[in-house]
Amino acid sequence: MAQKKTSKKVPKETSDPKKQIRFLKQVVEDLINKDSAEIIDLLAGKRHVNEFTIAKKLDLTINQTRNILYKLSDYGLVNSIRKKDKKKGWFIYSWTINPYQMLELLKENMKKKLGILNSQLKKRKNENYYFCETCSIEVNEEKALLENFTCVECYEVYELSNNREIIEDLERKIEKINRDMEQVSIEKGFEAQKLEKKRTRKIKKLEAEKKTKRAEKRAIRKAEREAEKKAEEKKTGKKKTKKSTKKKPIKRAGKKKSVKKANIKKTTKKKIAKKIKKKNKK
Fold it and tell me: Is the pLDDT confidence value at 28 over 80?
């Protein structure tokens, strides 16, 4: 009996808002510091957040808040709009984060970290390292050989480092970054879809606006033509009438032919009758 092939169900890629916020916070931590990462909680999923509201919730001065936002803005991670305060007369900025750009930057940073870790792992697998327990200094085999396997600080003899633990730790870190990179790619894909939908809505709106403008122009031109026509009629005192385009009735050729045939038949009958009369007289 042939075994039936069982098709494995591929799990659908789904967005995880909690993980996305963690990733966005990681970007801010890498660029500024850990304390500034709290700004993501205030901006995630919102649009045009007032900078004074951000400063109040972060317990920072407006200048400290602006410094964080300006630094993120330099990388294209946040956007702002400004409105003039009618009472005070100065401009107030409102901010919105750009998750797609943040995830793009995070993915690039992850690739760099992954490259460094893979390089370290390769060295640990192929080279020996030596360690001084007294000074907590580790050197590679080449340096240990130059120093005669003796620490230059305390003159204690180097011991061979246990590379296995370090290799296992590096492998765990590499595996984690690879997992995170996969999820970052998923989140980035969802954000790209949102941007595409936003772009198509904007294009449709612009097309609708153009359509209404064209219709308005056509209506204006029509009204102008009618106004010109009325003005011309007032001057001449006559209304322009359209020439009648009625077609003259076409006589069918078939009827004429039938009349001719009838006349020919009548003449032939008369001739035959005359001939018969002549014969009878004789």
Answer: yes
Distances (CA, A) of 260 to 165, 225, 252: 122, 57, 14
At 75 the three-state DSSP class reads coil
Q: Would you say 170 and 117 are in contact if contact means Cβ atoms under 8 Å apart?
A: yes
**Which alpha helices (H) appear in the chain, and where do they start and end?**
17-31, 39-43, 51-58, 62-74, 99-126, 141-146, 163-236, 253-281
d(C-alpha 179, C-alpha 133), whole Å = 35
Q: Residue 196 and residue 238: Cα distance in Å, rounded? A: 60
C-alpha to C-alpha distance for 10 and 127, rounded to whole angstroms: 41
157, β-bridge pairs: 150
In angstroms, the CA 96 to CA 50 distance is: 9
Question: Which residue did the predictor score with more confidence, 205 or 244?
Answer: 205
Phi, psi of 70 (to 5 degrees): -65, -40
Distance CA 157, CA 154 (A): 9
Backbone angles phi, psi at 118, to 5 degrees: -65, -35
* pLDDT tens sequence across 90-122: 888 999 999 999 999 999 999 999 999 999 999
pTM beyond 0.70: no
Q: At what angle do helices 17-31 and 62-74 cross, to 10 degrees?
A: 100
For residue 58, give every residue at least 6 positions away whose Cβ sits within 8 Å of its Cβ, in sequence order, or none.
Answer: 38, 39, 42, 65
Rounded CA separation 205/212 (Å)? 11
81 bridge partner residues = 94
d(CA 241, CA 51): 70
Look at residue 245 and tell me whether its pLDDT is greater than 70.
no
Alpha carbon dihedral 140, 146, 152, 158, in 10-degree steps, equals 50
